[in-house]
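Example (one chain per record):
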Amino acid sequence: MIEHYRDTMIIGPKISRKFVKVVDDTQVQQCGIDLRVGKIFKIEGEGVLDYSNEKRKLPQYREIFSSQEDIKISLDMGVYLIKVADRIEVPRDTCALVYPRSSLLRMGCTLHTAVHDPGYEGYPEYLLDVKNPITLYRYARIAQILFIRCSGVVGTYCGIYQRR
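Predicted structure:
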């Protein structure tokens, strides 16, 4: 028997703005909500991943920019960790997908993101891949988050990144 997916859909910004602490209507787009730069870190050292996460070790991060303290930063080619300034709360029957803004892509940069599982709460972090030098200003809008209603969800997120 094939399960019906009629309830699976992208949740528009009129509703999804409840899941992101939006500053103003500039962040509200046609299908989603723009996310802003909060902090930028340089990645230093080696990370470790295994199957069970028993040996997982994050590399060191050195903060090089904070939207609360700095006006702008010029980034050379390389990879950086971005922590967004916007807190998200993913409902229990929903997941969230994040995409780079097209302006970021046109400047020769992109974001590498992951699925935000049902129940995730916090300030997400993404990998900024700078292929062409770029200057980012305080609270620059770099990504758009889409919330998708899910059917057949199994549990909610309870990993180490919850509420960070």
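Caption: Residues 105 and 111 are 9 Å apart (CA to CA).
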